[in-house]
Every structure is written in structure tokens, then in C-alpha cells.
Amino acid sequence: MAKEKGHTKKNFLKGILIENPLFVSVLGTCPALATTKTIEAAIGMGLLFTIVLICSNVLVSLLRKLIPEEIKTPAYIVIIATFVTIVKMLTNAFLPALYSTLGVFISLIVVNCIVLGRAEAYASKNGVFDSFIDACGMGLGYTLALISMALFREILGSGMITFGEIFTFIPLTRIPILTYMKSDYTVVYDYSISLFSTPVGAFIVFAFILGVMAFIKNRKNELKTYQERQEKLRKAAEAKAASMQGGNQQ
Amino acid sequence: MKEILTFVLAIVSAMLIDNVVLSRFYGICPFLGVSKKVKSALGMGIAVVFVIVLATVICWPLYNYILVPAGIEFMDTVAYILVIASLVQLVGLFIKKHSPSLYKTLGIYLPLITTNCAVLGVAQGNTDQALSFIDSLANGLGTSLGFLFVIVVFSCIRVRLESANTPKALKGLPIALITAAIMAMAFMGLQGLFSGIV
Fold it and tell me: Does position A136 have pLDDT exceeding 60, yes or no?
């Protein structure tokens, strides 16, 4: 199968912006709202999600000629559930803080529509390498989307960015942004809005990110229709001028 | 008497105080996807109540009497998702045969329930917290009734929002999410409702 140049790059990049699973297709919203309280939890969730997505996409793509059409969906669900169980046990063993923070949402990767959706829509029709690249792009796109939501929620909700609480192998650091702290972490003043750490903040942040995306899209469409109209007017004027010229010559 | 009171309180607490959609974030996809009309929201809600209660009744004995004695507790997620997927199929077939009119209202929502995280979330949560059978049942019943309640109320608001004059960029999903945020704020007010009773 001949492929156009830059196919792999395009395939990888589409998941990040054009077909972003969270902000464009609005899939996988449950973990996006539940695990974006802190940036570290969002990174952890995105990482586990990407691992499961890559593994399931590669395996589904390898088995795509063996699985009969009728039992496609149950077979994919079992494949995904197996990888989720493996990832869950590994997390419990090596990153217990991440395991207790994400809780039941690690198991819920099984019913995340993105994983099943990519298996059905992409991996069952394409080769192993393409499926791998697709999964990497989608996973990275989802992780970046989670981090961007967590960025707003953590800064507005707690007034600072904290690292080292979940990924315990890095030293505990707090970067104050809306708060001022002395060197021993006693807070002097605090302008954070704790509402953003609650479920309410999750809904509001998600709503406004989708709103901004829709605003940019609307503006682009308006600009396009405006340019098209200008082009049409210009062409009409040219045609008129040409016909006038023709009339003068006669 | 005390057991009945605890049971009812557990249901109400799972339904209102720790609401499945607005504070635990299970089942956001159907909550946003199937809430444009009140009728479809009601159908989806009832189907979810049906499946969650049945799944709880099946998954608890499955874990405690089959997976634990066999020493394969780590297979819980795989077992639960298989139970839920086949349960959804069976319930669909059963309703289709015995009550075609009910199937007409619920039928199209049944396949969607397999990927509703509320069902797996309840089954997994019951296992992770090591709840007793009665507590699991109360959790399942309360969670699913909470889902039904919230999705119906939300769909009523969304019908009104259709005709409201919202900013162009917020039309559709963003304004619905802001509505959900305000509802979540209202539900936060119920926290500590039973602190004096239990």
C-alpha cells in the first residue's frame, strides 16, 4: 500500500489537536472531570490511559484478521480489560500514591469510550505500526487535554502547583502562584478559590474550555465566509469591468 | 428497625449527598449525550436503574463466592465487564420478548449502558470498599436512583435552554456544562444532611 509522504507525522499529530479525543470528540469525560484536581493526578491518569490505549490498539491490530465480525466488541472489551488489570496491579505495586488517588478510575479505563472507539474505528482496519502511532497521538492528545484542565483547576483551586505528592520519587516542591508562603510553607496570604477544587470547578473549567474552542471555530468560519464573499465580489467586479471594456471596444 | 433506617439512609445518601454524576463523576457521557429530551432521559435513567441493580445482585456473589475461593480476585474487572455486557444483552432480549412497548422506549439505550461507567463503577466500588450484600444493594439502588433523578432534572433544564438566548460560543454543550456546575453547587449544599441522625 503506497502512502503519501508525511503520513505517519499527520497520523500522529491528528490526535493532539484536530481530532483531540476530549475537546473535539468530547469522549472520555468522566476521568477528565474526576482526575484533574491536581496536575500530577492528570499526568498519572493520562500516562496509564496511554499505556492501555497503545497496548490494546497494537493487540487488536495484530488480531484483526482472526477475530470474527460478530463477536468483535466483546473480544475488544476483554482485551482492554486485561491490559487495565495489568496496569492496575503495576500501579498498585510501584506507585501506591497514584493508585489511591485515582482509585476506581483506573478500572474505569475499561469503559472509556476512547479506547473502545479507537479499537473499533482504527485498529481493526489498519496495520500494527499505524495503530501504534495512532494510539500514541491520541494518548498524548488526551494527556495534554487533562493537563490543561488540571492547570486551571490546581492554580485557581489551591493557589499553587505541587509536585512530589503522588510521584513520590521527585522531591516535594510547591510553586506558589496565587498565594504567598514563607520558606517553611506557612501561608501569608491566599487568593485561591477553593470552589475550583470541588466538582463544580471541574464542570466550569470544562465548559469554558469547550466555549473557547467553539469561539475560535466560529471566528474561523466567519472569516472564511467573509473572504469567500469578498472573492466573489472581486470576481463579479472584474467580470463587469471586462464586459464594459468589451462594450467600449465595439 | 435500625437496619431499615440505615438502609434507607444509605440509599438517600448515595442518591443525593454523594450524587453519582455531580460529585462522583460516573456516567457523564450519557448524562450529556441523552439529555436533550425529557422522554429519552427518563428511558435512559430507568434502563440504568434496572441494569445497575441487577449487576450489583450478580457481581457481589460472583466476587465473594467464586473469585475469592478460587483465589483470582484480581480478575474482578474482567469478570464484571463480561457480566455487565452479557446482562445488557439478556435484559434487552427479555424485554423485547415480554414487553415490546417497554422495549421501544428502553431498547435503543440498552447497548449504551455497557460503556456507562456508573455500572462498572458501582460494582468495582462495592468490591474495593468491601461492602456487605445489603450495603452493596443500597449503594447500587441509591446510585442508580440518583442518576435517574439528576438526568431527568437536567433534561428539563436543557429543553428550556434550547429556546434561551445564550452566547453563540456557549451554545450546546458548554452552557449545559455550566448548568451542571450550578446543579453540582446545589447538591453540595446537601452535604452533612444526616450528620445529626447517624
Answer: yes
User: Domain residues of chain B, as ranges?
Assistant: 38-153
**Is this complex scored with an ipTM above 0.90?**
no
Query: With contact defined as beta carbons under 8 Å apart, do A114 and A138 qualify?
Result: yes
pTM (global) more than 0.95: no
Alpha helices in chain A (DSSP H): 7-14, 29-34, 39-62, 72-94, 96-102, 113-118, 128-158, 199-249
Give residue ranges of B with CB < 8 Å to any A CB.
Answer: 22-29, 32, 74-75, 77-78, 81-82, 85, 114-117, 119-121, 124-125, 128, 167-178, 180-182, 184-185, 188
* Cβ-defined contact of B124 to A108 (cutoff 8 Å): yes
Q: Which one of A146, A200, A204 makes the best mutation probe of the B interface by having the most chain B beta carbons within 10 Å?
A: A200
Q: Which residues lie closer than 8 Å to A200 by C-beta, 6 or more apart?
A: B181, B182, B184, B185, B188
Q: Which residue shows C-alpha cell 503506497?
A: A2
In chain B, the residue whose alpha carbon lies closest to the alpha carbon of A111 is B115
